[in-house]
């Protein structure tokens, strides 16, 4: 077994760290090879396609907003049409889930900090 | 039973001397800097991942990904923080991804998850600990990802909440709450049955 931090219960196979270092070096060297640049025209093509679709989505959204504007031209009208929102922001929900707090504390209302 | 610490807060304001060499154009200097970086960080990053992911293969993959990303994106390190904080931020996100990929299903009870983790550890040839340590590691491995990270950084590596906040991008208050939840769950699982 490889030498490890004092008192750690985790062991590693013999020579593991040398082997990992070698693998990392090899991967970095592969990345440096100019061969990867051969993919550049393909990459540019892919980026053009992505730009086209983003542009198209932008046009569709703009047209929709323009139509909505036509349908409802006053602020009061827009306000009346607005549905009340009860959604929880994604980041807050993620935080609760990460903490396991959603079921333990929030839904069961058992906050005891 | 305290594994090696990743770093100490008092070292936080020093940048490592091999740092400039990582971006050097001279291959000899770059190679020396690579060795310096690996000597300083390879084991700490591996054991950080191992404490979070438990399984050797997963820790190997995740730690390798961290080091590759650090070395590939070293040009983007703007020295607005310490190198260790920057590196630990990358490690934190990689670990988060790895833990989320194999997240246990929500409908598995905590007892069942803890039991499964205990039997995994007992069968692991690369894990060697007494019963109390095994129960502690099993309890840690059943925590939700962020709580697990906060607990490991605070309990094993003794990072301040301020430093953990800099790494995770969360507020100190949220981190203290996470640590509190984690400690409560661990206490419940580590207590030996009468």
Rg over CA atoms of chain A: 28 Å
Q: Proportion of β residues of chain A?
A: under 5%
Would you identify the regions of chain B where 5 or more consecutive residues have pLDDT less than 50?
Answer: 8-12
Tally the structural domains of chain A: 2
Helix content of chain B: 55-70%
Largest sheet of chain B: none
What does this structure look like?
- The complex is a heterodimer of chains A (113) and B (194).
- The longest helix of chain A has 32 residues.
- Chain A folds into 2 domains: 67 residues; 31 residues, no CATH class.
- Chain A is mainly alpha-helical.
- The mean pLDDT of chain A is 74.
- With 194 residues, chain B is mostly helical.
- Chain B folds into 2 domains: 84 residues, Orthogonal Bundle (Rna Polymerase Sigma Factor, Chain: A), CATH 1.10.1740.10; 90 residues, Arc Repressor Mutant, subunit A.
- In chain B, helix 1 runs antiparallel to helix 2, helix 1 packs across helix 3 and helix 4 crosses helix 5.
List strands and helices in order, with pairings.
The complex is a heterodimer of chains A (113) and B (194).
Chain A: H1 16-32, H2 40-71, H3 75-81, H4 90-99, H5 101-106
Chain B: H1 27-53, H2 56-72, H3 83-101, H4 110-123, H5 131-141, H6 145-156, H7 161-168, H8 172-190
Helix pairs in contact in B: 1-2, 1-3, 2-3, 3-7, 4-5, 5-8, 6-8
Brief overview:
The complex is a heterodimer of chains A (113) and B (194). With 113 residues, chain A is mainly α.
What tags apply to this protein structure?
heterodimer; A: 113 residues; mainly alpha; 0% strand; B: 194 residues; globular
């Amino acid at each position: 077994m490889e030498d490890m931090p004092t008192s750690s219960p985790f062991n590693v196979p013999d020579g593991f760290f040398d082997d990992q270092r070698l693998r990392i070096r090899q991967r970095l060297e592969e990345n440096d090879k100019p061969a990867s640049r051969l993919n550049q025209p393909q990459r540019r093509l892919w980026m053009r396609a992505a730009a086209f679709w983003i542009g198209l989505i932008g046009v569709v959204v703009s047209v929709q907003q323009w139509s909505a504007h036509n349908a409802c031209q006053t602020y009061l009208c827009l306000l009346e049409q607005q549905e009340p929102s009860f959604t929880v922001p994604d980041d807050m929900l993620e935080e609760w889930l990460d903490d396991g707090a959603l079921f333990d504390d929030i839904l069961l209302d058992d906050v005891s900090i | 039973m305290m594994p090696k610490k990743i770093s100490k807060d008092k070292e936080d304001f020093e940048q490592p001397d091999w740092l400039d060499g990582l971006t050097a154009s001279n291959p000899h200097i770059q190679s020396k800097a690579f060795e310096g970086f690996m000597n300083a960080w390879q084991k700490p990053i591996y054991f950080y991942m191992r404490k979070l992911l438990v399984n050797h293969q997963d820790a190997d993959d995740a730690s390798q990904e961290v080091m590759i990303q650090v070395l590939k994106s070293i040009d983007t390190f703007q020295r607005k923080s310490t190198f260790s904080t920057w590196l630990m931020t990358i490690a934190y996100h990689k670990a988060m991804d790895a833990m989320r990929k194999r997240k246990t299903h929500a409908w598995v009870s905590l007892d069942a998850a803890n039991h499964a983790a205990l039997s995994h550890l007992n069968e692991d040839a690369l894990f060697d600990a007494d019963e109390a340590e095994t129960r502690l590691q099993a309890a840690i491995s059943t925590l939700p990802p962020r709580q697990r990270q906060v607990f490991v950084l605070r309990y094993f590596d003794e990072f301040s909440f301020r430093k953990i906040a800099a790494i995770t991008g969360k507020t100190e208050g949220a981190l203290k709450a996470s640590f509190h939840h984690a400690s409560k769950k661990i206490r419940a699982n580590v207590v030996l049955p009468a």
